Known about the structure:
Layout: H1 2-18, E1 24-25, H2 34-42, H3 46-59, H4 61-74, E2 77-78
Parallel strand pairs: 1-2
Amino acid sequence: MNYQREYNYRENHSADKKEQGLSKNKRYKKLSGVCAGIAKHYCFPRLGVRIATVSVFLLFPMAVAIAYLLATIILPNTEY
Length: 80
């Protein structure tokens, strides 16, 4: 039984390595999926990343708007 657990862990772990890069998440997107992709990549809650993005946007609107637009253009789309 320990062998089966270890085998499943390695199999799941290697599947995670294939999708290691940062990308937009089409499944949980609100605008373009950037916040959902960041949350998935760094294992943060999606709502927390969205609240942080809006909070920082209120402090630095131009910088966040440019960064978000660049991320929307540059990051590839994936569905987790």
